[in-house]
Amino acid sequence: MRSSTASALIYALIFAATGVSLPYAGLWFDGQGLSGSEISVILAAPMLARAFTGPLVAVWADSFQLRRTAISWLALIAAVAYGACALVDGFALWLVLWFVAATAAASLIPLSDALTLKLARRDGFVFSIPRGVGSVAFIVANVAMGVLLRSGDVDRIVLWVVLASVLLAAAALLAPAEPVQENDAVEAGPRLAGLGYLMSDRRFMIVVVAISLIQASHAFYYGFSSIIWRAGGISTRDVGLLWGFSVVVEVALMWGLEPWRRRLGVGPIPVLILGAGAAIIRWLALAMEPPLAWLWPLQALHALSFAAVYLAAIQLIERLAPADKATAAQMVYSSLSAGLLIGLATVVSGPLYDLYGPGGYLAMSGLAALGLGLVITVRRRVAVS
């Protein structure tokens, strides 16, 4: 199997699972009788811990000789833990099992990014193409599950995610046998030292925190946009279409504008600045409860506030980190952007919604503005811009 095809298959299965777990996990727990507070604790716990679990998983992943091995094992662990959720009952058990499953699943993306970046550089394909396949899979999974749930059987959510994870565990083994290191696997001590090296690199960490703040500003949107839109009289069908449309424009950027940007030689720093600016505008506008007609162009900004920032981050972090620390670098970034900071923002989003409703978006624009400020501060120190 060609390396680009193998990468596309891996991303497709990762996001086939994420396209169901992200929007529908809360619905499944609600169907089990949990309160909103209990659901928020279960969903936020693995995010908050990712600052610690992410680097530990990175060190563990680098202990293997091949990059694909850790991806396969993590997918299998996620499948088992997700499946076990459907076999037990009670908040404490669900909290533990979801923590294991979500931690394993979240680690799949940075590990797959590190593998695909190396394969793209070696074999000459554009990273955004297989990654865009993942976004398409997210749309398909999201819409398909919405149709399946019309029968009211929420257990289909768990079944779907387990099946996608099992298929991913098998598909990962079809990826090229790309070594973690040029020689044999490195012992844990040097790997931990490499992790410490990255976290002591002030320039690297400022960039990571800046990007993570921009990505964390999406927390209120992920948690409460659907609720706000439904409360405003927007139909369930249109809510689903709004979510789908945001990912469609994300794919369009990855497959169209991103290769064009690279041909023109536009660096990641200007793209980060553009994405942060789009996030600020998007959240400020959503705080004003715009009508449905205005939501479509605001959802189109997802291509900049999320996708452009994500692609620029992957490129920038890869260049700032030494080659032998590529996996650890992506995992440190993931631990903050998809972990600690967005976890904290998710916890805060609940009280913000209770107190201010859509006004909670104003706090998210503040996070994006803070990230923009850090990017501007460090841009002259980043030689790759």
Overview of this protein structure:
By secondary structure, the chain is mostly helical. The chain folds into two domains: 186 residues, MFS general substrate transporter like domains (Growth Hormone, Chain: A), CATH 1.20.1250.20; 199 residues, MFS general substrate transporter like domains (Growth Hormone, Chain: A, Up-down Bundle), CATH 1.20.1250.20. Helix 1 runs parallel beside helix 5.
Structure in a nutshell:
By secondary structure, the protein is mostly helical.
Descriptive keywords:
single chain, mainly alpha, Growth Hormone, Chain: A, 0% strand
Fold topology:
Elements: H1 3-31, H2 36-61, H3 67-85, H4 91-123, H5 128-148, H6 155-171, H7 188-200, H8 202-216, H9 219-231, H10 236-264, H11 268-286, H12 292-300, H13 302-320, H14 326-356, H15 361-378
- Counting DSSP E segments of at least 2 residues, the number of strands comes to 0
Structural class estimated from helices and strands: mainly alpha
What is the N-to-C order of secondary-structure elements (H for helix, E for strand)?
A: HHHHHHHHHHHHHHH
**Secondary-structure arrangement, i.e. CATH architecture of the largest domain:** Up-down Bundle
In CATH, the topology of the largest domain is named Growth Hormone, Chain: A
Number of helices: 15
Whole-number total of structural domains: 2
Envelope shape: globular
CATH class of the largest domain: Mainly Alpha
CATH-level-4 superfamily name of the largest domain: MFS general substrate transporter like domains
Helical content stands at over 70%
**Sheet with the most strands?**
none
Fraction in beta strands:
under 5%
Low-confidence runs (pLDDT<50, min 5 residues)?
none
Mean pLDDT, to the nearest integer, reads: 85
Tell me the radius of gyration: 20 Å
